[in-house]
Automatic annotation (TrEMBL):
Keywords: Cell membrane, Disulfide bond, Glycoprotein, Inflammatory response, Membrane, Receptor, Signal, Transmembrane, Transmembrane helix. Homodimer; disulfide-linked. Heterodimer with IL17RA. Heterodimerization with IL17RA is independent of the cytoplasmic tail. Associates with non-glycosylated IL17RA constitutively. Binding of IL17A and IL17F induces association with glycosylated IL17RA. Forms complexes with 2:1 binding stoichiometry: two receptor chains for one interleukin molecule. IL17A homodimer preferentially drives the formation of IL17RA-IL17RC heterodimeric receptor complex, whereas IL17F homodimer forms predominantly complexes with IL17RC homodimer. Residues 664-688 are annotated as: Disordered. Pfam families: IL17_R_N, SEFIR. InterPro entries: IL-17_rcpt-like (IPR039465), IL-17_rcpt_C/E_N (IPR027841), SEFIR_dom (IPR013568). This is Interleukin-17 receptor C. Its main location: membrane.
Length: 688
């Protein structure tokens, strides 16, 4: 499309050297060689087929370097297009080898070798050009006289005029010979764009500044440049004069592009996509992505842009835990967004979920059949694996793995192995998938629960009798136990000294009518379930029983909170595999952000380890206590309405303070002091 001289001047700048671009007259492509070489440009474009690398039979011509130059291809004085001239530098590669049978043939072999050495070299050089949406390949025939053929030496260059491209375009150029004797050369170049469009940050938001004259009319379009399918318009205006347009940071996605052009006939449109590498844009893209079920057996991932993601099927058991990956897997290639895809299943089931992962990180998980088929079921998934010669094996998918039905392990599936096999043979299980590799069945477990009700009732009656006797014998002790309240301690494992301090606090709290849960005492469960699953189970149980979650703030915990709240504005803090505090933030933060924290959470920090204002403001919506100076109030809040009388509470607080003091002092001993860990420094001292 013709480009006005005014726009080219804006794009290429005020430098007189830049403005004095060479003009190429005419529409035809052309080629010329350096002195001593002869060259010919084949008519029309050719297919871009590099082929495989072959061995050189002797000296051959190969391209060694690519150069580009901007020129103007003009049809009239002011009717020009921006064009890319390409210069290909050539050299001789390889040499003639002495014949192995020289002694046999004697002078005849020498004569043949001399004839080859006196012959000229000829090469077919392919030049490939890509600048969206244009792709071209041209073929140049180059001949070098024998006098210039020196192995390993340059022989000259070939100049091609020229490939047309738009302002602001990214061009890619390749060059190789046919046949190909070496890896193709490549060059990528960004052509200049119009300088009157500027993208800048305005705090959390983004400003588009268009600096043009007051009379200049132009069009501005914002669109999503999707890899699959055409661009999707989002916003369009015709404007006049200088403009500043503000975009909310939540609207940014990697494929959001800006297109601007003067409202003139045959004007060039310049597009830029400035948010491809913006971390905020990538986070917004995943927040906007949605999974949808398309009856009967389809699904779709909706998102504004393409996503580097893979999808897998998994089985979510009713009792929680991680979703177990399933065979059949979905195709491992990237998911195509906004396109209907098919499940390789015979039937749907509420426990079958789909996970979308990016760079081995779980981004989305949806149990798509939950809305149409109801909540999760207490079904056992049986997995049949089929091998050669009709070899078959059957196992049940559980949290610990796939358990063989007739094994001697003490799991639910192993105990009911015979019954599950009978259900499978009698057709009581629903077949979800079947092919040459294996099959999947979902077998209901409800009836086995019903069959055991009689035993359960009998056990309950016996238990009630035992409890009644205990109630008579230890009435006062049972009353005190009934008043006990659950407390879940969450902390960041900053170092060994701080963990000892937390352990001392948890042990002291157990002396009160409190039931304390802390990951220090549950390392085996934490390793088996993972920090997130362990925290979910403990938090649910604590809150259902009317208990309280205690957030122990330390420098490491504060850093983790800032990391979550400010999206990596703070330096990432490393945490161990048993750090429930880091895992819990994904659920704790929503409670505070949505106002559900009061009455459920209490905060605390230790004197000298942290200053009061270091606790993030979001967490100060609940009571936050300094320990041990505010121990009486802290203990009273933990125990709730059934707290001890003030006098006894103060006495208990004084006892606990004496217990905590040695552990607290150990956090401030210099590194290497016997009996301590690596030590901690107060936050106030770290800032000085």
């Amino acid at each position: 499309m013709p480009v006005s001289w005014f726009l080219l001047s804006l794009a290429l700048g005020r430098n007189p050297v830049v403005l004095s671009l060479e003009r190429v007259v005419g529409l035809q492509d052309a080629a010329r060689c350096s002195p001593g070489l002869s060259c010919h440009l084949w008519d029309g474009d050719v297919l871009c087929l590099p082929g495989s690398i072959v061995s050189a039979p002797g000296p051959v011509l190969v391209p060694t370097r690519l150069q580009t130059e901007l020129v103007l291809r003009c049809h009239e004085e002011t009717d020009c297009d921006l064009c890319v001239r390409v210069v290909i530098h050539l050299a001789v590669h390889g040499s003639w080898e002495e014949p192995e049978d020289e002694e046999k043939f004697g002078g005849a072999a020498d004569a043949e070798l001399e004839e080859h050495r006196n012959a000229s070299l000829q090469a077919h050089v392919v030049l490939s050009f890509q600048a969206y949406p244009t792709a071209r390949c041209v073929l140049l025939e180059v001949q070098v006289p024998a006098a210039l053929v020196q192995p390993g030496q340059p022989v000259g260059s070939v100049v091609f005029d020229c490939f047309e491209a738009a302002l602001g375009a990214e061009v890619r150029i390749w060059s190789y010979t046919q046949p190909r004797y070496q890896k193709e050369l490549n060059l990528t170049q960004q052509l200049p764009a119009l300088p009157w469009l500027n993208v800048s940050a305005d705090g959390e938001d983004v400003r588009l500044v268009l600096d043009v004259s007051e009379e200049q009319r132009f069009g501005l379009s914002l669109y999503w440049n999707q890899a699959q399918g055409p661009a999707k318009p989002w916003w369009h205006r015709n404007l006049t004069g200088p403009q500043t347009i503000t975009l909310n940071h939540t609207d940014l996605v990697p494929c959001l592009c800006i297109q601007v052009w003067p409202l003139e006939p045959d004007s060039v449109r310049t597009s830029i996509c400035p948010f491809k590498e913006d971390p905020r844009a990538h986070r917004n893209l995943w927040r906007a992505a949605r999974l949808h079920l398309l009856p009967p057996q389809g699904w779709r991932l909706d998102a504004p842009c393409s996503l580097p993601a893979e999808a897998t099927l998994c089985w979510q058991a009713l009792d929680g835990g991680p979703c177990q990956p399933l065979v059949p897997p979905l195709p491992r290639e990237n998911v195509t967004v906004n396109k209907a895809l098919e499940f390789p299943l015979l039937k749907g089931h509420p426990n079958i979920c789909i996970q979308v992962n990016s760079w081995e990180t779980l981004q989305l998980q949806e149990c798509l059949w939950a809305d149409s088929l109801g909540p999760l079921k207490d079904d056992m998934l049986l997995v049949e694996t089929r091998g050669p010669q009709d070899n078959r094996s059957l196992c049940a998918l559980e949290a610990s793995g796939c358990t063989p039905l007739l094994s001697g392990v003490s799991t639910r599936a192993a105990r009911l192995g015979e019954q599950l096999l009978q259900d499978l043979r009698s057709g009581q299980c629903l077949q979800l998938w079947d092919d040459d590799l294996g099959a999947l069945w979902a077998c209901p477990m409800d009836k086995y629960v019903h069959q055991r009700w009689a035993l359960v009732w009998l056990a309950c009656l016996l238990l009630a009798a035992v409890l009644f006797l205990l109630l008579l014998l230890k009435k006062n002790h049972v009353k005190a136990a009934a008043r006990s309240r659950a407390a879940l301690l969450l902390y960041s494992a900053d170092d060994a000294g701080f963990e000892r301090l937390v352990g001392a606090l948890a042990s002291a709290l157990c002396q009160l009518p409190l039931r304390v849960a802390v990951d220090l005492w549950s390392r085996r469960e934490l390793s088996a379930q993972g920090p997130l699953a362990w925290f979910h189970a403990q938090r649910r149980q604590t809150l259902q029983e009317g208990g309280v979650v205690v957030l122990l703030f330390s420098p490491g915990a504060v850093a983790l909170c800032h990391e979550w709240l400010q999206d990596a504005a703070s330096a990432p803090v490393a945490h161990g595999p048993h750090d429930a505090f880091a895992a819990s933030l994904s659920c704790v933060l929503p409670d505070f952000l949505q106002g559900r924290a009061p009455g459920r959470y209490v905060g605390a920090y230790f004197d000298r380890l942290l200053s009061p204002d270091a606790v993030p403001a979001l967490f100060r919506t609940v009571p936050v206590f300094s320990l041990p100076s505010q121990l009486p109030d802290f203990l009273g809040t933990l125990q709730g309405p059934g707290a001890l009388r003030h006098g006894r509470l103060a006495e208990r607080a004084e006892q606990m303070s004496r217990v905590l003091q040695p552990a607290l002092d150990s956090c401030f001993r210099p590194p290497g002091t016997p009996g301590t860990g690596r030590g901690m420094r107060p936050e106030a001292e770290e800032r000085t």
